[in-house]
Specification:
Radius of gyration: 25 Å
Largest sheet: 8 strands, antiparallel
Number of helices: 20
Number of strands: 25
Structural class: alpha+beta
Length: 599
Amino acid sequence: MRSSQQIAEHATFQNFANCYWREIDAGRTTRHGAEAGPGVECVEWLLPSQRTVLRVEIVSRSLCGPCGLGRIWKRALPEVAPGSQWQQTEPFSALCCLAGESYRRMEGAGAGTDLRGSELELLLRVLQSYQSVQRYLDAAPAADGDEDEFIAAEQSLVFGHWLHPTPKSLQGMTPWQQPAYAPELGGRFRLRWFAAPAARVSHRSAVRQSAPEMIAAILGQGIARLDPKEDERLIPMHPLQAEALALDPSVQAMLERGTLRALGAAGPDFTATSSVRTVYSPDSPWMLKFSLPVRITNSIRVNRRHELDAGVIMAKLIGAIGGDLGPRFGFVLDPAYITLDAPDGCESGFEVILRENPFAGGRQRGVATIAALTADPLPGRLSRLERAVRRHAAERGGSVAEAARRWFDAYLDCALEPVLRLYDTHGVALEAHQQNGLLDLRGGVPARFLYRDNQGFYLSTAYRDRLRRLIPEADNIRSLYYEEEEINRRFSYYVIVNQIFSVIARLGKDRLAAEEDLLCILRARLERLALSLTQAGRRFAEGVLDSPTIGAKLNLTTRLLDIDELQTASEAGLYAQWPNPLFQSGAAAAERGRHALSA
């Protein structure tokens, strides 16, 4: 039985190698080599900058997700050392080889001036991600807990997303802080509270309840202990952010003058959701989303002032659209914010977004993020998706394969059709990746899809007048408007590649259904939508079906160049085109049809 160290090291290499395979070098596949065994399929990568060849065993292939990788060997290039033998090597050593080769190729392409600094930074984050995975494995319970709890699913992502080379890097969160604040370790903590003069505090709400009233509802009877003055507003803060703010000279000066008061910890216990910086309590009517002094995967997560207003305006816009959403589709909105004003008009660090919490007061069962459903399970256990499908098969009868197909059909009813209809009718596209998507599974199969995240909206410029008629303020969120071509590139990645393909890959890996069959089901659904939709949604569906490539995000390249994707001015450059398995499945089906006609 492998140790947690071996499992974490292999998982870290597999993530990195799959990204390298897609973004840097497709390598050469081979089926020979006595060291691997007869008929064992491998991928070989030439690493000329290191005078090395790397050979990696392919344990399983996927049309939609990561390939499963096994043993690893390397040897000197034949022209460097003729007759050199393959030597088995450890995963992290092989990962360092791939990382080094990536940077040497970038040098040849003339990218950047401090590639060595970026390389060391990447290796640091890789190590951090590996150490976090090992820690989460060591802390995992001996048996599955209450899998129906919303927060249990949020905190179950031990390995992270396969399309990222450092999925569990938390740069800025120390090992001794992780037990309290890392979602995978399930820590509980109380928020830190500050009081500031009302004239220095900005807040806004899209609903009847104001942000200060929402905050009072979170505190309940605990507000008496804080005893704010009549002309003060209370601002909650994540403990990590509170510690960082306490070191800010401008905050220290306000505390010394008494224009800001630190009131300490109060209120109910909160815990981190999968995003780390959004926190949840079953005893609070609201979740809260904070800025954090932590670089999570690609970026330091900061609530920008324009995002605060965008969240409120989008909550109003979704409220105006309302009846068009249908019963299978909904939102977890961010309808309010509160913050301490900075003298220069920029962010003060006290920006807090208030998010709806439909999972409080006994309503927290039967809803799970798609990321949790499709994640690799802990060793020796079934994935959440497999458990859901098998439970549905037991309840409804019939084979597991039939249950998997029913589950997938119901999933597309919720997570694809209404999302495309929203885009078609109103020009609103969603950054609906697997972590931003929640499924209501209380009936056994997906009954409703819920979308969250006020940063993840794309509004089509072609629909601007229509959106303005719904709410005039829609014209004020210019940062969310994009041309249709750019929207479709991102939309295809988030909805199709990141989300739906992950479901297909998981069902295939768990041997509940063949990926080819699920791709045919998805293709047929998109073909029907292309016939029934009339505008942007139709063009999107046709593009996904007819293009040999599909939009994809370059997470490894982003990390190689040490880019903070929330700060870069050329975010579009972080996307590329990858081979489209939907197009390939259509071509294969057409070829089978031609053979059948000629037979």
